[in-house]
Amino acid sequence: MNFFDFFATKILGIVKELQLNSHKNIRFTVEIPKNSNYGDLSTNVAMVYAKEVKKSPLELAEILKTEILKFPEIEKVEVMKPAFINLYIKNTFWQNAFKDCVMQGENFGKTNIGKGEKINIEFVSANPTGPLHIGHARGAVVGDVLASIYKHLGYDVTREYWINDAGSQITTLGKSLYFRYLELLGEESKFEKATEFYPGAYLIPVAKKIVTTDKNKWINTKEEEWLPYFKKVAIAEMMLLIKADLATLGIKHDVFSSELAIATDEGYKTVIAELTKRNYIYKGTLSLPKGKAAADFKVREQLLFKSTSFGDDEDRALEKSNGERTYFAGDVIYHYNKINRGFSRLVNILGADHIGYLKRLTAVVKALSNDSVPYHIIFTQLVNILENGKPLRMSKRAGNFIILQDLIQEVGKDILRFMMITRKHGVAIDLDLAEIKEQSNDNPVFYIQYAYARINSVLANAKKEMQYNLDMLKQADLSLLTDKAEIDLMKNVLKLPRVLEMTVAEDDPHKIYLYLMDITKSFHHLWNKGKEIENLRFIIPTNQILTIARLSLLLQTSLVIKSMLLLLGINIKEKM
User: Fold this and answer.
1) The model's pTM
2) CATH architecture of 444-567
3) According to the 3-state scheme, what is the secondary structure of 270-318?
4) Per-residue pLDDT tens for 68-85?
């Protein structure tokens, strides 16, 4: 049961009875108050409809309060300025709702709201110029977790990686590999005299493979002969390296789309024809870019996309003055390709350094889909690695950044994945290695896994002391659980359907972290209360009926914790 929807539906029934909803686009909210003293739920329904019925919000709130008090599930209703209506819900409602939750077992929260809708989630998409670094880890985990949750809710999800295997950075990569090849054959190093190449030692094993197979075949050839080969080999080897990095992090993409294969001349002609037909293309000139001196800027006519028609600050060039395609043109072709593959929603996870592309990419998706395909870009902020409060540099083979493999070896996949969602994606993360490896309740990963292990321990001990089975737990008399700590744990478990739906509605997996922390905190509070009050212990040998009820609460709590950790791609620890 989604108890938010349950009460929202009942309140909507009152709205209809009182004929308040002449405008169907008006929406009110039903949420948990930030302050628990203000009830179990709070709604802004009176403020939303007050103008509609020409009453003050407080006056309408009092009318609605009278009607809401008629609900059999309601204990008390209070009106609070400016006109919030706070609902206090009877324990019997939580007990009955939790009974339904127990009957669903591990399937609780798993719904089919997606109904097979096709969702494309593109994430990582790092240029294939070297191993993944810590900056890629955050987008990788956010994208993978989102994909898992969408799938859990009945969506048809495609995890996609866009390979930028065309352009100047690939030419630089091919040359860098060639220079490593020459070094192995005794030629003078070019890396000390040039800064535009990729100096990481990760290219040396690739160069050794070429030396083994081709010997000195390429040593005296012209660039136009060796460069295509070295580019091809470099891309293939770097993608193998990237896929291995992702696998270590527990991530597997469904599709790897190649820019070389998709952004062809034919593909470009097709998308230009489509945009021209829709009157979104013209020849024109752009104004002086911000921060550029007028003396250095030449006014020139270019092929432009009418990005301003969709709220962008300026129109965007698809071709340079010499007729070459811009980087943006490749993005246009790629997004047109995704739209034509029949996805009804596109999600893209990018680093914060790409935030300037938000408006233009959103504009082109609207233009090419007739505004029929929702498109959401998530920008992930930086991850700073510290050790005892000081910045850390771990890599010896990748240049001046911390490579992902080093960090996974240092802290483990599970801890790294979990820490990537402990902040909202728009907020930078500071990861102190000493802190995240610490086995204490201050470490959120340990805190949650310890709760799960503790519950397993209680269930195992109860099995030894008294024989019970799953059917007994499903038939437990939950009306016996009346302590506030027990009810609070029920409430937190029951939030799950709402949390999952809001996670995909806002594309924000951080909500799962907050949810797990709420459940874990409620469980540990109940555990500690039982240590102080004998009658609140989970196992009471003299009262089997009450023990079965508490075991039922614990089992369902553990199933929810387990299912959420698995959605996060984190292994379960049965014992700690």
Assistant:
1) 0.92
2) Orthogonal Bundle (1.10)
3) HHHHHHHHCCCEEEEECCCCCCCCHHHCCCCEEEEECHHHHCCCCCEEC
4) 999 999 999 999 999 999
